[in-house]
Hints:
By secondary structure, this protein is mainly α. The chain folds into two domains: 2-66, no CATH class; 67-330 and 341-471, no CATH class. Helix content is 77%, strand content 0%. Helix 2 (13-33) crosses helix 17 (346-355), helix 3 (38-52) runs antiparallel to helix 4 and helix 8 packs across helix 22 (438-470).
Amino acid sequence: MTTELELNWTLGTPGLLGLAVAAVALLLVLIIKFRVHAFVALVLTSLLTAIAAGIPAGSVITTLTSGFGSTLASVALLVGLGAMLGRMLETSGGAEVMTNWLISKFGEKRAPLALSVASLLFGFPIFFDAGLVVMLPIIFTVARRLGGSVLFYAIPAATAFSVMHVFVPPHPGPVAASGLLEANVGLVLVLGLLVAIPTWFFAGHLFGKFVGKKFDLPVPNILDAALGNGSSKDDFKSSPSVVTVFSLLLLPLILIFLNTGLNMLGSAGVVDPEAAWVTWLRLFGETPVALLITVLLGMVLLGFRKGKDKTLIETVVDSALGPVCSIILITGAGGMFGGVLRASGIGNAIADSLQAVGMPLIIAGFLIAAIVRLAQGSATVALTTAAAIVQPAVLADSSLTAFQVATMVLALAAGSVFAGHVNDSGFWLVSRFLNMDVSTTLRVWTVGQALVSVVGFVFVMVLYGLATVLA
Length: 471
């Protein structure tokens, strides 16, 4: 933040907003017009933005690496381990087995719906990026089998993970906002589901059909890299049972849900959060640990138990990392760019100005979260920032019911997901995995996230109005 870095000069809100717009414009020009590699363009734009924002020369590199490192800390392990699990599922034939089962239950015409239902379930405890990476082999297999644009299958599923991540506890954004506004987390969870599911239907399912028809994109081959070492993909194929595939998909979900469930019970005073057995069980449910355990189990069930040579198993797991290295670096650089914008104080300056305008609190909170999101990229930061800003007004209004406070949290959550673009690491994750260029990603993912925000806010306002009438 500006107070932490003691910027060389201070830009007012108009200047900071102009700087953010100029930085995004420069980045888009470099990538779209001059075809500069996204990683190089993000690093260069981050450096120039840091200098223009007045960050002291001695703190520029620290600011860049801090944003880059913090993003990699949360993304690299999840993407790497998720890619390993996905590679084993895809190479062993597990993704095809899962595809056949889904199509037999839902039918070919409802295959995108089946993928989305699975994503909504997996998205309850699993973060957006980890869940998407694990589901991608199944999404790609379904798309290859049934034909049509990959967006027809991927966008509804990705949106399912997105709405669960932003609206539903135990994800960190709504939990943090609930704590700041003293909202009942259980009520936020129930109302969050009431908002998330219809929002997914309009902004994910229906929008996915639209973009699938508009943009005919082939299935990417990023997960189809050759194994190397003279090995063939057929060497690892074993056509595992549906039970085995489901076990590998559900295990991280169960472990992560164990972590978040114990965390909620600890906050409610049901269990002692400092008890040794609680801390150990929560450790096993941390997302990187849960995925690591699942990868090891996958090596056993899909490899050793099927009589596969240990060198072949190592080769299959290793082959997952090469194709995703570029994605991890670009995603980290996107986090770097967002980190520089946060350090410049752009989000705070805009939020403070909006707070002074004077409008209904729930609308002001939504707008504050949306503009902070546009300015600095992170949905979680936008949500917690907006919650901290409206907190005094919410806590001071004794007329607000628990239902209304819960809807306030969801209004902030809706704003925090608005129009994720080039300063959001998730934008680059989707762009690279689906092999979309930047302009297409802006028209597909950014517009889709804007729809999630607006449609979600409409449903929140319906709930808020209902609560007001019944109060």
